[in-house]
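Data card: per-record layout.
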Amino acid sequence: MDLERGHFRHLERLRVRWAEVDLQRIVFNGHYLMYLDTAVAGWWRAMALPYEATLQHFGGDLFVRKATLEYHASARFDETLEIGVRCERIGNSSILLRGAVFRQERLLVSGELVYVFADATAQTPQPVPAGLRALLLGFEAGEPMLEVSVGAWSEWAGASTAIRQEVFVVEQGIAADLLTDDADAGAVHAVAFNRLGLPLACGRLVAVRSGVSKVGRMATCSLLRGAGAGRAVLDALLTAARAREDREVVLHAQASAVGFYARHGFAAIGAAFQEAGLPHQAMAQTL
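The structure for this 287-residue chain is written out next.
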């Protein structure tokens, strides 16, 4: 049983809250199960798989059969921890997840969660579907969980519009008539799909003038933010800009996304402004 930090493909970072510390001034033992459960949710997100939709796709659900913890050392208030989760074994109907809580490289708590794949209503065990088995084991083997398709509006209008509707209209309250515009027809579009073919993120690249393009309509489904889908779309659009020998790419970032674009090579230009009822910041990157 390998419990070194580097042997977990997914590590969920969290900080110990005041409410999680007991009278001994250490994390109360029961909270570590909550930490593991939080990390399991992040593990599904890292696989670009929305939990509920994925299990509905496979016609079942997962029920905890057993949860065990072994305590090696204590965590304290305000410490930053990393919770590792990996799929260690898949039986006929069971899935064993190994968990570990680290403070830097030191192992504090180890444990395992045994799930049973079952009919969602009757809760009777069913064989783990081959497709789900392949996804979980593929992730642990280092396989990519996303695929980005790049092409014309005629190819990706449906997927892009669905993501825009979910993010811009439903989540952010932007007017539905702003979802699409005339620029879509001539733009390069990129859509990130997970391994079940579910569209997760989209964006477009519009020629502004000779040598300059604009990234826009970037959107990622809320449940999968942090899974790398937005970055994959942005990378695909920048690759498309380089392929046509653009020298600069500009964009209007929502205020909440400025940090994301800054981490990917964009710099702010001028003062913030309002667009579609939300604060934005102009940004640019020289290619």
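Known properties of this structure: The longest strand covers residues 106-118. Residues 146-286 form a domain with the Aminopeptidase fold (CATH 3.40.630.30).

See the next section for split statistics.
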